TrEMBL record:
This is Choline kinase N-terminal domain-containing protein. GO terms for biological process: phosphatidylethanolamine biosynthetic process. Residues 1-24, 425-472 are annotated as: Disordered. Residues 11-24, 452-463 have a biased composition (Polar residues). Gene3D superfamilies: 3.90.1200.10, Phosphorylase Kinase, domain 1.
Amino acid sequence: MATISAPEGNPSLSHESSLPDLSSNAAFDGREVEFTRPPPSRAASIISRGSVDDIELPDEIVTAEGLRHSDNVLNAKRYKGKSFMDRLFVILQDLLVPTWSERIYPSNASISSMNSWTDVAPPSKDKVWIHKVSGSLTNAVFFVLVPNGPREQAKGFTSVAPYKTLLLRIYGPHSSDLINRAAELRILHVLSSRYRIGPRVYGTFGNGRVEEYFESEPLTAQELRDPQISRWIAVRMSELHRVDVRKVVDPVEWADPKDGTRGELGVKRNVRTWIPAAREVLKLIRNEEYKKEIDFELFVEQWTRYYNWVRDWEKEEDCAKQSPRVFCHNDTQYGNLLKLKQPQVGKWPHQQIIVVDFEYASPNSAAFDIANQFCEWTTDYLGPEPALMQPSKYPTRQERDNFYLAYLQSGLVLDGTSRAATRSLSSSISDQSSTTSDTSSSSSSGILTESPASTPTTLTRTPSAAALSKTPPLAQFTKGTTVLPQAMDLLEEQVRRWMPGSHGMWAVWALVQGRENVEKENMRLDGKKQNGTDSDEEHEEDAIEFDYLKYASGRIRIFREACKEMGVF
C-alpha cells in the first residue's frame, strides 16, 4: 500500500505513455513472459562488490525476460551521498535507460533496427538531482532528473532535454513479507506490454527498479469524492477487471475454471500468508494493553468466520450472488491514482486518471476491489491524523450509485452493446447520477468531452482484439439481468458484504509493516542508538513516521463493528 505525493504546486508521477515500450529487446508479440529466480547465493556476490551497509537484500533477486537487470543495490537512506550517485549511474548504464546511458534508442525507430542506436553522453553527476518523494508506505521512491535551473528554483520535475526524468523505486524493509516481487514484476510487464496499462519499467536492480515518469499529480482525499473523478475511477477499474487473468497471473496460482480448480482469491491468500509475520511482530510489542485491545488470535478466528459467511452467501442460488472473479488492483487509494497535468488531445476524459502501484494486484472479487475503493474515502494519509480512519466519510448510496453506473456502463461498451441500448438501460436511473451530457463531442482544444450514457472505455493504448476477446462479459457481472437498476442493487449488496474484508486485510498488512516502528520503540526503551545514525553519509530527511499499529487497531475495530452489524458474529 503506497501513498506518493509531491510538494504543493509540483507535478508528481505517472507511468503511462502512448509510446511503445522500448526498454527491452523483445517485441510485443504476445509471447509468454518467463521469470527467473537466481539462487540466494547471488545476493552475497552483490555485497562483495562494495559497501552496502544497512541494505536489506531480498531473499531472491527477481528478473524478467525482456527486462534488463543490474546486480547493483542501493541504500535508500544514503540517497544524498556520493556512493549512492555512483552506484545509480552504474545501474542506469547496465539498464541502458534512454538518454541516461551512453546510447539512446529513438522512439520512431523499429525495435529490430538495432543500428538506430545513437551515442549520447550521460549527464554530469553534479548536474543530477535526486528528489525523495514523500508519503510512500512500502517503498522508497525518488525522482531522478537534470533540473532546468537551480534546484531551489526548479519548477516541477521535468528534466532538461534530452534527459528524461526517471522514477527510482527502492523496495522497503520487510516488504518481501508482504509482496511477491516475482508476481508483481510479471503483472507490470504484461500489463504494460500487452494491455498498455500501468508503468513502463526500464529495468530492475538488486533491490528495486527504474520506471518511466509522467507529469501528473496524485489525487487528493477530497478529489476521490468528486462525482466526475469518481466516475473516471470506475471506468478505469472496469477496464482493469476485464484484463484476462490468465495472461497476467502465474498459471500455477490461478487455474482455468474449466479445469475444475481455482486459485485462492487475493484477499484470502494475503491474510493467510501475512498472519505468521504479523504474529512475529506482535511478539516484539511490549505494550500489553495494545495486544489486549486488538486480541489478534480472536481476530484470526473472526476473519475465518467472516470469510466463510461471505462465501456461503455467494454460493446460494447456484452462485447467482457471487461477485465475478477478475484481475483487481486491490489498493486504489488516492495516492495510487494520478491525474495528468495536461489532458492529451484525442483522449477520453477518464484517461487523465492513471492507476499505478500494482504491488498488491491479484485475482479477486470485483466487489472487493470496489469496496476497498470506497473504504479509501475514509482515509487521509496526508492529514493531521494519517493513521485514523473516518467511517462517517464512507460514500453515500447516491455516491456509490454514481460509481456503479459508470462501472457497469463501461462494461456495456467494452462488450459491444450499442450506444442506443446503453442509453436506454440507463435512462431510468439517470436522475441518480450527476452526469450532465448525453452525447460525445470534441472541445475546441481537441479533448473529447464526457458522454456518461455511453462512456468510452478504450484503454489509453488500445489492446489487441485477441486480448479483449477473452475478457469476462457484462453478463458475468450482472448475472444475466438486462436492467441496470437491478444490476446496481446486486453490486451494492456484493460490495456491502465484501467491505469488512478490506478492513481485515489491511489490518494484518499494517501489523507486518509496523515491525520497524516496534523495533525502534524497543531500542528507545532500552536506551540504544540505532545503527548508522553517526554515519557521515546518513542523509535521510526527517519524516513523520506512519503509525502502523494505530492504523491496524482502527481497521480491526471497524471490521468487527461491520461484521456485528451484518450478523456475522
